[in-house]
Automatic annotation (TrEMBL):
Coiled coil: none
Domain RING-Gid-type, chain residue ranges per copy: 92-133
Top-level taxon: Eukaryota
Keyword Metal-binding listed: yes
Listed GO biological process terms: proteasome-mediated ubiquitin-dependent protein catabolic process
Protein name (database record): GID complex catalytic subunit 2
Length: 147
């Protein structure tokens, strides 16, 4: 009979477990189109990258006494590293559901966007009124938006 106390099970070192956990986290987040980093880290880093552009913009506005008419809209594109660019998530304003490959966002000629299933329900195959503005359109005039 074997002496149980002499059986040794070699477990990977703690660092190997940490690497595996990190890999799983990154793969899982990547499959969802999310960052594996904490949202606070991403927000703080993106803010640090964008800060020089914000300061420059603020100085230009101050010097030239310019006021941009679009509120809460920054008129300059801030280039961020590829690792900080994620797929946008669209939630249909009618059904309140997140879009999927089978139920993608559809833009109507007026520029408003609803999910494909909502568009089908609203239109019932015929001419329909946009739920957000007075414009009417046909389902065939709506275009799929690729996120
Ligand atoms: Zn509309």
């Amino acid at each position: 009979m074997a002496n149980i106390s002499k059986i040794q099970i070699k477990l990977p070192k703690q660092t190997a477990w940490d690497d595996v956990a990190s890999s799983f986290t990154r793969e899982f987040c990547s499959s969802l189109g999310l960052s594996a980093e904490s949202p606070l880290y991403v927000a703080a880093t993106a803010g640090a990258i964008a800060l020089p552009s914000h300061v420059k913009y603020a100085n230009i506005v101050k010097k030239k006494h310019t006021e941009w008419t679009t509120q809460n809209e920054f008129p300059v594109e801030i280039p961020l590293p590829r690792s900080m660019i994620y797929h946008a998530i669209f939630v249909c304003p009618v059904s309140k559901e997140q879009s999927t490959e089978d139920n993608p966002p559809m833009m109507m000629p007026c520029g408003h966007v609803v999910a494909k299933e909502s568009l089908a329900k609203l239109s019932k195959g015929g001419r329909f009124k946009c739920p957000y503005c007075p414009n009417e359109s046909q389902p065939k005039d709506a275009r799929e938006i690729i996120l």
